[in-house]
Design goal:
20% strand; 12 helices; alpha+beta; 8-stranded antiparallel beta sheet
């Protein structure tokens, strides 16, 4: 979109490999974490209505809400829910909705009280999803309407985003929808050939406020026009939110660490990068960019706004191949800034090939020669019921001479445990789209299992598979 007008909206390719249906400008895709800005917009509507303030303590509206630290419980505000400075670690709690969920949103948010922080409150940036789930629950507590209902009725409808959805039922009810794809038949996820995924598993519905909106090119064009117009609706004097709330949305709050791109991509490294309310704010070639990426399994998304140029762009791909998305995004940004063409797509392809080759080499080295030692116990000695404080229960059974692991609160997350080395086993999930993991048993002085820890096998596993945060202990009879 440019200067208040939609100048290009189009689809390319097919909705699902092996089928002829084409993508067009009304095809809906899951938009991942670019949807966090919609949760912020819903909150902005409530601020304008005087029902909340950004710096209200969360417990003012959700008295039952608790963080691990009672002091943080008392101090954390609505703004804190949105800017990734709570002290939680990267992706903390994501296994409550990855790859799917059986818990309600409130049940998931109630688990926050058991998740130990990695840093002190408001001292460091670490991206999370679970606090956006809390923000969505807060909307329900304040309005009596679910996040899905409120966002659909008070944000999407007045914005004129006629094809966008907040529920899986509405998304699946639209025949003009894109199917997610990933590379699954190689050594680990991300290498191999593209294949369709089960579209039910892009995101657990409890996490929708963190990234559960599906939208199209035409609808996202309207969204960008509203953002660039500081909340004013296209071709109207009416507003979805006030100019004051528009300023709040884009005002940096949390300093983000800068991890520079290497080699041919080095020019993309910003001098500053911050997180505002549902948006990244950074510099690039002397101008301010307001942007956010999004990813759910099988789909990637990018929204980038250049306020100084009154330009916005949205790209989404029904694949996990981010090099196409990022390369084209930066090429378009350069175009609008009058920069020489840098062929970013080719440079991202080269970068990803080199990264994947290095990961494959490390993977082969690590998995090539496990020690021929263990297990310490007969297999029945590892069977039992175990629980982690924030995730909850798992079960390990011995069935036909084979250990079977069942993540009780994640539907269809079951699989065999094959001995690896010592007292470490490796998962062979029935659902091959789930990231494999090493499962390590710790024994006490009597030789009984005292605890279980996990680690992703793939060096490129998505951070939402936060196996490292789990510590299961035996459940007493």
């Amino acid at each position: 979109v440019e200067h208040g007008e939609v100048t290009f909206a189009r689809g390319f390719g097919v909705r699902k490999l092996g089928e002829p249906d084409k993508v067009d400008a009304d095809t809906i895709f899951p938009t991942g974490s670019t949807g966090k800005a919609f949760t912020v917009a819903a909150l902005a509507v409530l601020v304008d209505e005087g029902k909340i303030e950004w710096d209200d303590p969360v417990i003012e509206h959700m008295p039952w809400f608790k963080m691990y630290d009672p002091w943080v419980t008392r101090e954390i505000t609505i703004r804190d829910l949105l800017v990734h400075r709570s002290g939680l670690g990267l992706g903390a709690g994501d296994l409550l909705f990855v790859p799917r969920a059986s818990l309600s949103r409130r049940e998931s948010v109630e688990r926050l009280r058991y998740i130990k922080p990695e840093t002190s409150f408001r001292s460091a940036y670490a991206y999370d999803n679970i606090l956006y789930m809390a923000a969505g629950q807060l909307i329900e507590e304040v309005t009596g309407r679910t996040w899905e209902e409120f966002v659909a009725e008070e944000v999407l409808a007045p914005a004129g985003m006629v094809n966008s959805t907040t529920t899986l039922e509405d998304r699946f009810g639209n025949p003009n929808r894109a199917w997610p794809h990933a590379r699954l038949n190689g050594a680990f996820r991300g290498v191999g050939d593209q294949e369709p995924l089960d579209e039910r598993d892009t995101l657990g519905r409890n996490a929708a406020p963190a990234g559960g909106i599906a939208s199209s090119a035409n609808d996202m064009a309207r969204w960008m026009l509203i953002q660039l117009a500081q909340g004013r609706l296209p071709d109207s004097d009416e507003r979805l939110w006030s100019e004051e709330q528009a300023r709040e949305m884009w005002t940096p709050v949390t300093i983000m660490p800068i991890h520079g791109y290497p080699g041919a991509l080095a020019a993309l490294t910003p001098n500053f990068s911050n997180y505002a309310l549902g948006w990244n704010v950074q510099d690039y070639r002397g101008v301010k960019l307001v942007r956010h990426g999004g990813a759910v399994f099988g789909v990637q998304t990018l929204v980038a706004l250049i306020p100084e140029k009154d330009v916005g762009l949205f790209l989404v791909i029904n694949s996990e191949d981010g090099e196409a998305l990022l390369g084209l995004g930066w090429e378009l940004i350069d175009h609008y800034l009058g920069a020489p063409r840098a062929d970013w797509p080719a440079k991202f392809v080269a970068f990803v090939k080199e990264r994947d080759a290095a990961a494959l080499k490390a993977f082969k080295a690590e998995t090539a020669d496990p020690a021929d030692v263990g297990p310490s116990l007969p297999l029945e000695g590892y069977a039992g019921e175990y629980a982690d404080p924030w995730y909850g229960p798992i079960g390990i059974t011995l069935t036909d001479g084979q250990l079977v692991l069942d993540f009780r609160q994640t539907p269809r997350m079951t699989g065999k445990l094959e001995h690896w080395q010592y007292d470490t086993f490796r998962t062979r999930w029935d659902d091959q789209t789930i990231e494999p993991a090493y499962v390590t048993f710790a024994l006490d002085a009597e030789g009984d299992v005292a605890g279980i820890t996990m680690q992703a096998v793939s060096p490129l596993a998505d951070f939402s598979y936060d196996y490292d945060d789990l510590h299961f202990t035996p459940v007493a009879d």
